[in-house]
Amino acid sequence: MTALDPVYTIGDQIAETMVRHEGCSHKVEIERALKLLQLVKVPSAERRLKAYPHELSGGLRQLMNSSNEMAAARKNEAIRD
Question: How far apart, in whole angstroms, are the C-alpha atoms of residue 45 and residue 22?
Fold first, then answer.
């Protein structure tokens, strides 16, 4: 079972989490999602934002789930403006 929706890109899913919790625009949250992926050291973070879950390895999917959880918690000040 996975927490990632196969219909949406990784970036859209992380941004959606941030939009729900912060109420900012989708465009702003996509930029924050990129910062978050760079923070957790995802290789080729910009390319991964546009990828779908089935295009990622199991380890990268785990990182994306962790990133999504961090986006919901917003405990990390490094991704805030």
Answer: 22
Please give, one letter per residue, the 3-state secondary structure of 36-61: HHHHCCCCCHHHHHCCCHHHCCHHHH
Task: Provide the whole-model pTM.
Answer: 0.78
74 by DSSP, 3-state: which?
A: coil
The pLDDT tens digits for 10-40 are 999 988 888 887 777 888 889 988 998 898 8
The set of residues, in sequence order, having a beta carbon less than 8 Å from that of 3 and lying 6+ positions away, is: 65, 68
CA distance 72 to 21: 7
DSSP tag of 12: H
